[in-house]
Amino acid sequence: MLIALTDLVKQTGDYLNTAAINDYCPNGLQVQGRGEVSRVISGVTASLALIEAAIRQQADLLLVHHGYFWKGENPCIVGMRQKRLKALLANDISLLAYHLPLDIHPEVGNNATLGRALGIAIEGELSASNPRVVGLLGSLPVPLAASEFALRVQQTLGRAPQWVEGDRPVQRIGWCSGGGQGFIDEAIDAGVDLYLTGEASEQTFHSARENGISFIAAGHHATERFGVQALGEWMAKRFGIEHQFIDCPNPF
């Protein structure tokens, strides 16, 4: 089945409520390709490797979480950016990217899908008073040792996380996919036993250790694989088109 590119973009933007979200990059159609879509390839980041995989799969549209044109970047179309855009344009492939809208969506968002994958019952926002914080709060049905939960993360995400063990069992959890290590203070204020995100900074260790909580850095890429897959599946069902997720390995 074919869907007009303009209709797909409009309905997906409405579903994700992109107009209401202030972001660091444009959300939606970043590169325009052919006017009709029957096959979507999704992935975390619009790298050259993912674009080349989409070309091999004869995609009409590439759907990603990390697209292009970030605030503060050099806008010149040279080097790595030129190679990526040239490959998309030469093959008439559209690029559709959603950043914060895909982090916060309650159904297909990175944080909602990550929480469900880890067996966490979602209870609410990590910090209702701070709109910059896009993470969530939730709990496990029964308390686990930090080592047990770290093993669950490893088995679910397919990579060994970095982690710090706190001084109590883990039941109440805060999490924010990607580079959310700076929100550990909000998690501590919320009374969590463990905070999980993708990355760690040097000071994150001290914040966790001195406040007695466990901390897990499970990988930026690894924690943001679920949302774009879920959105791609939503598109497939909504529009009757094909969808395939391609994971280009990234250890960070």
TrEMBL record:
Keywords: Metal-binding. It holds the Pfam family DUF34_NIF3. Gene3D superfamilies: NIF3 (NGG1p interacting factor 3)-like. A divalent metal cation binds at residues 65-66, 103, 220, 224. It comes from the Bacteria. InterPro entries: DUF34/NIF3, DUF34/NIF3_sf. GO terms for molecular function: metal ion binding. One of its GO terms (cellular component) is cytoplasm. Belongs to the GTP cyclohydrolase I type 2/NIF3 family. PANTHER family: GTP CYCLOHYDROLASE 1 TYPE 2 HOMOLOG (PTHR13799:SF14), NGG1 INTERACTING FACTOR 3 (PTHR13799). This is GTP cyclohydrolase 1 type 2 homolog. The lineage of its organism: Bacteria, Pseudomonadati, Pseudomonadota, Gammaproteobacteria, Pseudomonadales.
